[in-house]
Every structure is written in structure tokens, then in C-alpha cells.
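Q: Hi! First time doing this. I have a protein sequence and I read that you can turn it into a structure. Is that right? Here it is:
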Amino acid sequence: MGYIYIFCTILFTIYGQIVLKWRLNQLGSLPDGTTDKLKFLGKALLDIYIISGFISAFLASLFWMAAMTKFEITKAYPFMSLSPALVFIIGIYFLGETFTWGKLIGLIFIILGTLITVKF
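A: Yes, that's right. Below is the predicted 3D structure, encoded as C-alpha cells:
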């Protein structure tokens, strides 16, 4: 059951980050003026999808708390480094982000590091 808590932590973390990026892409860039920034942020904070991203982050925290009751942090935390790999794939396919070989090679090192940390 402990691994399900880690999986849910990763799932909700990724959802929160992807939905925030997606909606902020749609809302545009943060304006320069202070008043315009406050209006932009107010609009963003009232966006239902952004709210769902914050709720997702909160749920991820609850699942992480549950995972911490089942594992040593040194065993559980390396799994969190799998999030960038999944975000990389989702970002490319759903957000149109740029693929580079450097990013891919870096992610391979992250995954190898996770496997080494968890196994040994």
C-alpha cells in the first residue's frame, strides 16, 4: 500500500504542475505594472483549473504524509525524481514544449540515479 501513496503523490504533483502551466499559458504573460500584475494574479487565482492545481498539490501532500508513515524518507524520496521524466513527456506531447537530447540524457541519469538509490 505504501507504494500506492508514493504513486498518488507523484500523480497529483504532476497534475498540479501541468494544469498550472497549461492555464497560465492560456492567460498570457505576467504584465509589467503592479496593478496589472495584481489583476492578472487575481484572475488566475479564481480560475477553476488553477484552483484544481492547488487542490491537487494539497492532495499530493496528504499522500506524501501517508507514504512517510510507511517508508524511510531516504527510500521514498528518490521516487519523487521520477516526476521530471513524466513532466518532460507530458510537456512535449500536451503543452508543445521543446524536446532536446540534453533533456533526455539528463532524465536518463535521473532515472538511473533513482534506481541506484532505491536498490542500494
